[in-house]
Structures are given as structure tokens and as C-alpha cells.
Amino acid sequence: MGISERKEREREEMKQLIMAAALKMFLEEGYAKTSIRNIADAIEYSPGTIYLYYKDKDELLFEVQRHAYNTLLQVFKEKANSKDPLERLAQICKTYVSFGLENPELYDLMFIIRAPMNADESQHKSNGEDSFKYLIDTLATCIEQDLVVFKDPNLAALQVWAMGHGLVSLDLRCRLKVMSLDEVTTRETLNRSIDEYLSCIRK
Amino acid sequence: MGISERKEREREEMKQLIMAAALKMFLEEGYAKTSIRNIADAIEYSPGTIYLYYKDKDELLFEVQRHAYNTLLQVFKEKANSKDPLERLAQICKTYVSFGLENPELYDLMFIIRAPMNADESQHKSNGEDSFKYLIDTLATCIEQDLVVFKDPNLAALQVWAMGHGLVSLDLRCRLKVMSLDEVTTRETLNRSIDEYLSCIRK
DNA sequence: TCATTTACTGAACACCATTCAGTATGTTTG
DNA sequence: CAAACATACTGAATGGTGTTCAGTAAATGA
Questions:
Q1: pLDDT (0 to 100) of residue B183
Q2: Helix, strand, or coil (residue B33)
Q3: Helical axes B183-201 vs B153-172, angle rounded to 10°
């Protein structure tokens, strides 16, 4: 009997419907300003229904994050695929920063917002791991070929990520105001910082 | 007549009372979980009273931030005051990271939380500027004495800050889970990253 | 002493996330 | 086919939130 299969499929479709609406509204209005009621309104169901598919608002955010991490990985595979590992590393960094600046709300959901990485310990390792692995692998190749000053790919990846995330998140949180540079140059400033940093770690 | 002076003083004391209670509760419970009602309860006033002294919850947060930035600057002056500019730079970085790890809630309020830097454009330049200037000055001295690879103190400060902030905020948001290192070594890992980075930018 | 200003209250408003008794529909079983 | 059961969904209710504002009581000034 294919009924239970159909039910399962319908359930998955419903989860997708909710997730898509949530994503859209998170991006347009931000996580905090998007209420379960709003999402329910948007998909023309009652608020209670959403709780039949997601435990709470955080679980919904978690689902959206998973989606976003996959997106980032896809972008990496598209725009950071040079054969030359050093070049690829540069592409990864530039792509990461562009991604953050062009999708500020999405970046927020992925890397800055509090919930739900803190509470829920179990599953999250898998979340975003692939994108991070993409960076680690590239750095491992760089290290193998003796192109960078690093020795441990993990530590190297942490450092590179920290630099990228630091630049993007300081900008998104308007902490670059203290530097008083006009908006047009913000992006250029960040890119120059990345370039300077990369030339530092190059051997 | 000293009445208006006394009133002014009393007003300032009341603002301090509210701010102190807010800070305490922000640190203990976090910004989001601290309600105006809770603060009012703590100081034994009605919720409405708080709005006679602060426009809204964000303005209260802003006041707390101002306080926190001053604290950070004091810590810098205490623990990062070596005569040798390179040494001082290292001290600043280490102090910054320690400050973040030891005061996670405070760090959150200062650098990660959304409100209110975004909305309110006017005053915030002054906020935290002093601490940033402390870093810029140190880097300017390093550049003068040709000790680092940088040329522009502003860009240099941005990069150093980004690295520090990146490391701390990724840790606070549990994004280092992807690296699966035991807790004891987290701090050591961050310190080693800082050291490695500093040796990169040294000439 | 009396009018006015000031400080404060706390109920009310419009939201929020979440729960759950109740309903209505789809599915399985006798 | 009908009755029993399972599933999907509703929407009102609970206990919270930030914020406002009419009303009160005390301090001040005339």
C-alpha cells in the first residue's frame, strides 16, 4: 500500500512549504521580527499546524540554516574551483565575504544569531561541516605543496575562517563605523584586507 | 537654589540604578531573556518608571555598552601597556580574546547583539572608539618603526580586530564545534592562532 | 495655603511562542 | 458498507513581551 508513502511525501512537502515561507520571511524581515503567526498566515494555515511539523521556532531556524549551508557549499563549488590551491583559497575567501555582504540576513541566520546552536548539542556538527571541510581540504593541499606558512590544516582553516567571519560580521554589525569610510569603499576595504592577509600567509 | 541640582543628581543616580540592575541581569540571563518588567521588579519600581529614564530597551542596552567599552579600555590600559609596540600589540590581542572568553555575555552585548547600533546612526561613533584608537595607535607606532608588514594603521587595525573578533565570536557561537577539540584546548587553540597570526604580520 | 510641576504607578494595548481540547477528514477493520 | 480508529488541523487560551498613558500623590513655588 502506497498510502503511507504518500503521507510521508505530503508531510515532507508541508515541511518544505513551511520552511520556504520561513526562509523568505526571515530574509525579508529578519528572524526576530518573523512570528510563527506571520508564517502561518503566509501559508494560510493556523499557527498550531506549524508545531505539528517543527518542535519550535528554533528548529525551524535550524532547518533554514541547513538549507543555507548547502547554498554556501554550492556557491563554493561554483565560484571557488580553481585547480591551483592557493588561487582556490583566495577564491574561497572572496566568495565567502561576497556571500556575507550580499546576503546579510542569511549570513546572520547562519553565523551570528544565537539560536539554536547553543542549546542543542547533538546534530549540529554535521551542519555546515561540508563547507568548512571544503576550506580544510584546500588548505591541506596548500600545506602539502608547501605554499603556506601553516602546518595544521585545522588550525589554518580556523584562522582563515576567523578572518573572513571577523571582517563580515564587524561590517554587518556596523562596527566599521569607527573607521568612517564611505560605503562604496567598504567592500573594497574588506577585499584588500583579505588580499593582504593572504599575502601574509603565503610562503 | 540647589534644588534643581539635587534633582539632576537624583535623576543621574536613578539612571545608574537602572543601568546597574540591567547590566547585572543582562550578564546573568542574557539580553533577550531580561525583560523591562524583570528589571523593574529588581529595583522595586514599576515598569513605566524605566521609560521615564530610558527611551526604550535598546537605549538601555546602549548605555550598558558604553559602560562595557570603558571597562575594556581600562583592561587594555592595565594589561596591555608594554613599552615595546610589538609586545603591546600582542598583549592587546591576548587581552581582547581573554576578555571575550571570560565575559561571554558582556562580549555579546558589545559586539554581537543586533541592537541598537543599526538603527541609531548618530551617537555611536564615540562608542568604543577609544578602545579601537588604542589599537590603531599601537599599530601606528609599529608601522613607524617598520616592525610590521602593514602600511595603513586603519587597515591594519581592522585586520587585527577582525581576526580577534572572528576567533572569539566563532567560539561564543559554538562554531568551533566543527573542529571537535576538547574544551580545555579551546583557549590554547585561540591563543596559538593569535600567535601564529602575529608572527605572520611581523616583519 | 494653594496652584503647579514632578515622579511614579499599574492597568491596558498589541503583540509574541506555545499548548491543547475539539473537530473534521481520511483510513482501516469487522 | 458502517463503525472504529488515526491523522491533520484549528483557534482559543496561557503566560509572557515592550511600550503607553490616564491617574495619583508628593514636592515645589507663589
A1: 61
A2: coil
A3: 170
pLDDT recorded at residue B99: 97
Q: What is the pLDDT of residues B14-35, one digit of tens each?
A: 999 999 999 999 999 999 999 9
| Cβ contact B200–A196 (<8 Å) | no
Q: Residue B202's beta-bridge partner residues?
A: B148
Predicted TM-score of the model (pTM): 0.91
Strand C contacts (Cβ < 7 A) comprise: A 1, 3-4, 6-7, 34-38, 47-48, 51, 56-58; B 7, 10-11, 14, 44-49, 52
In whole angstroms, give the CA distance from residue B43 to residue B22. 10
Q: What is the pLDDT of residues B37-76, one digit of tens each?
A: 999 999 999 999 999 999 999 999 999 999 999 999 999 9
Residues of chain A short of pLDDT 50, as ranges, are 117-123
Give me the CA A3–C1' D3 separation in Å, rounded.
Answer: 21
B132-189: pLDDT as tens digits: 999 999 999 999 999 999 999 999 999 999 999 999 999 998 677 767 666 668 889 9
Identity of the residue numbered B185: T
Handedness of CA B140, B145, B147, B151 (dihedral sign): positive
Distance set, CA B85 to CA B76, B200, B203 (Å)? 13, 16, 13
Supply the DSSP symbol for B202. B
DSSP string, B104-145: HHHHIIIIIS-TTTTT--SGGGGTTHHHHHHHHHHHHHHHHT
Q: In the predicted model, is pLDDT for residue B124 greater than 70?
A: no
Tell me the one-letter amino acid at A68.
A
A chain contacts of residue B195, beta-carbon cutoff 8 Å: none
Judge if the beta carbon of B56 is closer than 7 A to nucleic acid strand D: yes
Length A27 CA → C14 C1' (Å): 24
Q: Which of 12-51 (A) contact B at CB < 8 A? A: 32
Q: How many CA atoms lie within 13 A of B92 on its CB side?
A: 26
What stretches of chain A adopt beta strand conformation (E)? none
